[in-house]
Amino acid sequence: MSRVAVIGGGLAGLAAAYRLRQIGLEPVVFEAGSDFGGKVQTEYIDGLVLEQGPDSFLVRKPEVVQLVRELGLADELVALQPGGSGSAIYARGRLHPIPPGLMLGLPTEVWPIVRSGLLSPLGKLRAAGDFVLPRDRGEGDQPLGQLVARRLGGQVLDRLVAPLLTGIYAGDPWSMSTEATFPQLLELERSDGSLVLGARRLRRKAPKPTAPPGPMFMTMRLGLGQIIEALIAALPAACLRPQSAVTDLALTSRGYRLTLGDGEEIDASGVILTLPAPAAGHLLRDLAPQAAAHLFAVPYASLAVTQFAYRPEDVPSLKGSGFLVDRAAGLTITACTYVVNKWPHESSGAVLLRCYLGRAGADPLGSDDESLLAAVRQDLETVLGIRAQPWLQRVYRWPEGMPQYTVGHVARTAEIFGLLRELPGLALAGAAYRGVGMPDVVRQANQAAEEVAQTLSQAGSEEESPRTN
Ligand SMILES: Cc1cc2nc3c(=O)[nH]c(=O)nc-3n(C[C@H](O)[C@H](O)[C@H](O)COP(=O)(O)OP(=O)(O)OC[C@H]3O[C@@H](n4cnc5c(N)ncnc54)[C@H](O)[C@@H]3O)c2cc1C
Q1: In the chain, what is the straight-line distance between the N-terminal and C-terminal CA atoms, in Å?
Q2: Is 387 helix (H, G, I), strand (E, B) or coil?
Q3: What is the pairing mode between strands 351-357 and 48-51?
């Protein structure tokens, strides 16, 4: 059996190892930390299920649901609760429900926007410019902020699109790639001459559902850490090497040689790198210097997640899933999730609120925990009027936690993957490349496992085939 070294034991690494085992190869996962799971970490305190990183996954992209089913955990899936849908945006000193009819973050209906207090009268008038402004026929990528501001004006960008973008990518709209985040928008301007009319056309064209729509998001009964535990349980203990940072990677005549922090050397026929991009660049610096240079250049944003548990009598009634924040509002937080409404099974009778801090260009991690928590409590008082002290509060820090897909990301990623074809049996997967969401990461892990397996089986059959000379 060929040994494949999987470097990095986050979701991508564990999912790749799981797939490799299914294919019949022998994976060994090398993880620098003492715990597996990377960003996917769940803590349990007093009946609360506290997510430290992601809290749910998109169902429309099926890879996580499929994996959960394969792991025998289908009964543990929890759908987004009806009381936890409908989000708001905090702007101009108050919460505004996100107008209905959005598609790709853009309004497709005029009246909800006209009635909403989210935009000023001037902002609404400027947004209507999208119907009449000439289309830009330029090819190629451009910053999402530039495209939206040009067509719909600064208010739609700042109060609608940027908060949504921050919620997903912690990104700066003026540097984020449209092609890597909302590629359809580039096409809509070219084909329809208007983002709103194009988004409306797509919405109308979408097939009418024959059954009631399923949930948009899901999580697990014991939190997302349950998936990590199940992946660990599905792999033999010998496949898992925690506290094993890989510091060097070299080519040998039969594959690759890894060096660990303590000097141990391990040979493998194939390698899957599921590290943050700069760490992958470090290991590839000699084997593929050009690819490594691109990997070093992927920027990251640092984030923090806070969790607060309040007594129900201390908090006003909360409607919907939470709110996003217009960055001009002057708050510290970028978003707040009402866990109690979305995922009541995690709240254990408390009112659990989860707030996010940090985005590209605004690193929150310079402050100590007490100051961060105080700043978030101040924001919760400003927005929701909560003055009481929570009975539990936690901060989870994610330095360099979110890769930034800046303009040109798709082309650079294609170039990195192209350059790595020179290294047979080596593949990349993970959040830095083709999607940051959990389903994207699992999809990339599956692809990497299949690609490496295919290369190794080709190499094996070439070795076995009789020589003709
Ligand atoms: C705060 C936050 C909230 C999020 N919310 C959501 C959400 O709700 N839904 C969603 O779908 N996605 C969400 N995401 C995104 C998603 O969680 C991540 O993109 C995904 O978990 C990344 O998985 P990964 O395996 O690619 O990387 P990681 O989880 O970063 O794993 C990489 C691993 O490599 C290890 N490593 C690094 N260097 C070495 C080395 N030299 N040797 C060995 N190991 C090494 C690290 O210790 C780490 O464990 C969120 C992310 C964050 C940070």
Answers
A1: 28
A2: coil
A3: unpaired
Q: What is the pLDDT of residues 121-175, one digit of tens each?
A: 999 999 999 999 998 877 899 999 999 999 999 999 999 999 988 889 999 999 9
CATH number where 146 lies? 1.10.3110.10
- Closest ligand 1 atom to Cα of 64: 11
Alpha-carbon gap, residue 275 to 167, rounded angstroms: 23
Q: Is 279 in the pocket of ligand 1 (CB under 6 A)?
A: yes
Q: How far apart are CA 246 and CA 257, in angstroms?
A: 10
Q: Tell me the C-alpha distance between 124 and 238, whole Å.
A: 61
Query: Is the distance from the beta carbon of residue 435 to the nearest atom of ligand 1 less than 6 Å?
Result: no
Distance of alpha carbon 148 from alpha carbon 152, whole angstroms: 6
Q: What is the CATH number of the domain that holds 305?
A: 3.90.660.20
CATH code at position 278: 3.50.50.60
**Is 194 found in the same domain as 105?**
yes
Instruction: Determine if ligand 1 sits within 6 Å of the CB of residue 398.
Output: yes
Evaluate: CB of 7 within 6 angstroms of ligand 1: yes
Q: How many CB atoms lie within 10 A of CB 252?
A: 11
Alpha-carbon span 182 to 180, nearest angstrom: 6
One-letter identity of residue 310? Y
Name the band, by pLDDT with cuts 50, 70 and 90, for residue 469.
very low
Measured over the CA atoms of residue 137, residue 142, residue 146 and residue 148, the dihedral's sign is positive
**Residue owning tokens 């107008």:** 99
Q: Give tens-digit pLDDT for 79-123.
A: 998 877 889 999 999 999 998 878 777 777 778 888 888 999 999
- Residue 248's DSSP bridge partners are 259
- Please give the distance, rounded to the nearest whole angstrom, from the Cα atom of residue 225 to the centre of ligand 1: 12
* Average pLDDT over all residues of the chain: 94
Whether residue 430 has its Cβ less than 6 Å from ligand 1: yes
Asked if residues 242 and 36 have their Cβ atoms less than 8 Å apart, the reply is: yes
Last residue of a domain, one of 403, 420, 448: 403
Of the residues 154, 175, 205, which one is the last residue of a structural domain? Answer: 205
pTM assigned to the model: 0.95
Cα distances (Å, whole numbers) of residue 161 to 98, 324, 434: 11, 10, 21
In a domain, 77, yes or no: no
Q: Which range of residues forms the domain containing residue 160?
A: 100-205
Does the beta carbon of 436 lie inside 6 Å of ligand 1? yes
Cα 268 to ligand 1 centre (Å): 24
